[in-house]
Amino acid sequence: MPVATLLPFTATPSRKSSSPTSFRLTEKFILLLVFSAFITLCFGAIFFLPDSSKLLSGVFFHSSAVETNTRKGTDSDSNIAVGTDEKILAKIRKDHEKALVEAKDTLQKRPDEIKQDIQNEKDKVFKEDLSKGGKDDDNLPVIEYVQPPGATGHEPSDPETKERREKIKEMMKFAWDSYKRYAWGSNELRPVSMQGHSSNLFGDIKGATIVDALDTLYVMEMYEDFEMATEWVEKNLDFNVNAEVSVFEVNIRFVGGLLSAYYLSGKEVFRKKAIQLGEKLLPAFKTPTGIPWALLNLKSGIGRNWPWASGGSSILAEYGTLHLEFMHLSKLSGNPAFAEKVMNIRKVLNRLDKPQGLYPNYLNPNSGQWGQHHVSVGGLGDSFYEYLLKAWLMSDKTDEEGKKLYYDALQAIETSLMRKSSGGLTYIAEWKGGLLEHKMGHLTCFAGGMIALGADGAPEDKTGHQMEQAAEIARTCHESYARTTLKLGPEGFRFDGGVEAIATRQNEKYFILRPEVIETYMYMWRFTHDPKYREWGWEAVQALEKHCRVEGGYSGVRDVYASSPNHDDVQQSFYLAETLKYLFLLFSDDDHLPFEHWVFNTEAHPLPSLILTCSIAEIQSK
Ligand code: DMJ
Q1: Does residue 574's CB lie within 6 angstroms of at least one atom of ligand 1?
Q2: Short-list 523, 511, 506, 531, CA closest to 469
Q3: What is the residue range of 332's domain?
Q4: pTM above 0.90, yes or no
Q5: In a domain, 536, yes or no
Q6: What pLDDT, in 10s, does the model give residues 383-393?
Q7: Residue ranges of region Disordered (predicted)?
Q8: Tell me, what CATH number does 302's domain have?
Q9: CA dist 529 to 8, 229, 469, 478, Å?
Q10: Could you tell which of 199, 602, 605 is best to mutate to test the pocket of ligand 1, judged by most ligand atoms within 8 Å of the CB?
């Protein structure tokens, strides 16, 4: 049938107004009247139908009960069906009213309240997800422990390497036995006066050396000592102290040490203690921006910053070196708060302008603004950069933001801070308000290892270039040792006033058993297998034995340019955690704590790669 015949009232384009089929004005008027009467009838039907909300309910609150019931309706049970229908309709009406009340409530809430509700819901899901395996007596999720690959090692086949590795173990044994004998339970050992030593960095928390050394004992297979240390942790490690601690130091040494001990041994006590301590640290984040305080009273939860820090600022290397440990704490506790706190730090940093792409060392936690424009890859800045890279590596390379932040920061460091001396030594200078200070710290020497570790993922074919930079920094740092009398590196060395890689100020000439140079040798050895790195490491061992080993342990020295050592009488806990562990790994095969599976925190505590239950993006969105 032609379409035109179905549309008698419609004028087709082919029709002219004068044609015989066209309507007169009166006909048109009548047709219009009929048509409007029809429309009115239709509207009337809609308005006068009984309880239209029931129809809507059927669409928006689709219920299988309704379907079941309507299918059941027969004449014989019509009475029952009517009763059931009423119940269902009542339920639908109730649900509908509830949904309307909820929607009204939500509309009355402030945006931050709505955000908080969403966050609570997400936290609930996160926790439910983690506790699928159930909860233990401490209300922690039950986690099936599986030892990550490479937790234990084996003897190297090359006799000289094997012998050197054994020597490092003997050094560890001496350092540990001395601590046991003279300072058991104290934070550190005074090896000359042969007694305990406590730094105020740890408040009244005790046993820094025990916790810092746990994983080294395990890695060196000193299992009896590991058991003894475990027992001490079980019985004596107590965080219920009314004292102020450094959030950063307690995190990297205690939380990091406990986490590593857990991942290496699977002993639950370490997981529990790490989480307990992590919870104690959370009040440090109660600042207007969420940038944590440097110091925290563990009992009162009151925090503050170092009095010397520019305008009450928090320190980049301190608040920026919590990420790895806190991500693990969320994973092991089922509490997303830890991860959220450190992700928020990134958010705050992302909002700020960076002078020449650099991150100043000082940030005010109240205003969220930079303090003094002082930039350093050494003290006050160092491990912030390290943790950007390691956050990406530890996340199984899913934390793309961490990756980008790291490589962008490294580019800015290369452009604005990295320089070559006239004698050809590459160094990383410091930056103060736009002016370069041609000084490098012993602490900055870790950067050789960091750059080597990140070189593989470097964008724009820069892998080779970054490996060269790493090798050059390793060489410079080796020079800083080689140019001293004691063959140990000074705390700071300069490239001005006619010197290169030499300390010129008396207060920069000391050596406190720091690990950074040896750390870089270890990374460079693993990536290049150039024997010089093992040789350089061995030179350091000889110098340590000759000048730092005393009757009661190992001590730092006050002047590395003096003809004989003047001891400072402190055996730092990081000597056992880092210096001796990195030396041991330098003389071990690469499959012991392999980089594919382990990431070292800034205190050399190995943490396994972390497969997160929820994505980094999810945590960030909170
Ligand atoms: C260690 O506690 C850590 O490596 C930290 O990041 C900086 N320095 C000391 C050791 O020198």
Answers
A1: yes
A2: 523
A3: 159-621
A4: no
A5: yes
A6: 999 999 999 99
A7: 129-164
A8: 1.50.10.10
A9: 93, 34, 17, 17
A10: 602
